[in-house]
Write a structure and sequence with these properties.
Helix content is 88%, strand content 0%. By secondary structure, it is an all-alpha fold. The radius of gyration is 15 Å and the shape is rod-shaped.
């Protein structure tokens, strides 16, 4: 389970970072692109949730 928590944490951080980049790309236009902004927001939220779950699992496993 320790490996799963590490993978989930790493994947969550990557997803959140990618979401931030995609959001910024959508917002960089004079007429903001709502599709890219929506995808970026979803990726950021999912990434943060995955990171929190992964860190929580890691702390739980490392204490036991």
């Amino acid at each position: 389970m320790l490996e799963v928590s590490r993978i989930l944490t790493a994947a969550g951080l990557v997803a959140a970072s990618t979401g931030l980049v995609v959001y910024a790309m959508g917002a960089a236009f004079v007429d903001p692109r709502s599709y890219e902004m929506n995808i970026g927001i979803v990726l950021m939220i999912a990434g943060v949730i995955a990171t929190v779950i992964g860190v929580g699992l890691y702390r739980k496993e490392s204490v036991d």
